[in-house]
Every structure is written in C-alpha cells, then in structure tokens.
Amino acid sequence: MELNEYLIYGILPLLAVSLSFVLYRLVKGPSVPDRIISLDLMINGGIGIIVVYSIINEQPAFLDIAMVLALIAFLGTISFSYYLKQKNLDKDD
Predict the structure, then answer these.
(1) Cβ-contact 35, 71 below 8 angstroms
(2) pTM of the model
(3) Among 21, 60, 19, CA closest to 43
(4) How many Å apart are CA 73 and CA 48, to the nearest integer?
C-alpha cells in the first residue's frame, strides 16, 4: 500500500470517528471547560484533515492554512481559560 491509500483508508476514517466522539462531548458536555476543550480538539481534528488533504493532493499551501488555524485555536483556548479563571476569581470575592 502507498502512503495515499493509508491516508485515505486509514487516517481519514479514524479522524472522522474521533470527531464524532468529540462532537458528542461538545453537545453533551457537563461543563463549560469540557465544551471548550472539545471545541479545541475539534479544531485540531479539522487541522488533521486539512494536513491529510494537503499531503494527498500535494498542495503545501494548505499546510500554511492549517498552521494559522492552529495558532488561532490555541489563542482562543487560552483566552477562554483566562476568562473562566477571572470569572471564578470574581465569584470568590
């Protein structure tokens, strides 16, 4: 088997299954931090799909898009965490 066949028949289905589990956690998450982490994980799964698509179609420009998306997701997660921390500090006062 070639690399493209591994990516198409192995990696993409695994990413799809994992994203379905993460979507379930996003919808049913018992708390806001669970939902934030599942949203971040969903974005990371989407980045994985973009990277696989880039490798299959030999389009390195998509890797730049995935890198920018990863940076935005990281900053979003950090800002949500900071917001929740400040919210808990205000609640304690």
Answers:
(1) no
(2) 0.85
(3) 19
(4) 13
2 token code pair: 């070639």
- Which tokens sit at 59? 């389009």
Query: For residue 54, which phi and psi values (nearest 5 degrees)?
Result: -65, -40
**Can you tell me which residue has the tokens 């979003």?**
76
Range of the domain at 83: 3-92
Tally of domains in the chain: 1
Q: Extract the tokens encoding 29.
A: 């998450």
Cα 63 to its chain centre, rounded Å, is 15
| Residue 1: predicted pLDDT | 78
- Low-confidence residues of the chain: pLDDT under 70: 93
> What confidence score (pLDDT) does residue 93 get?
62
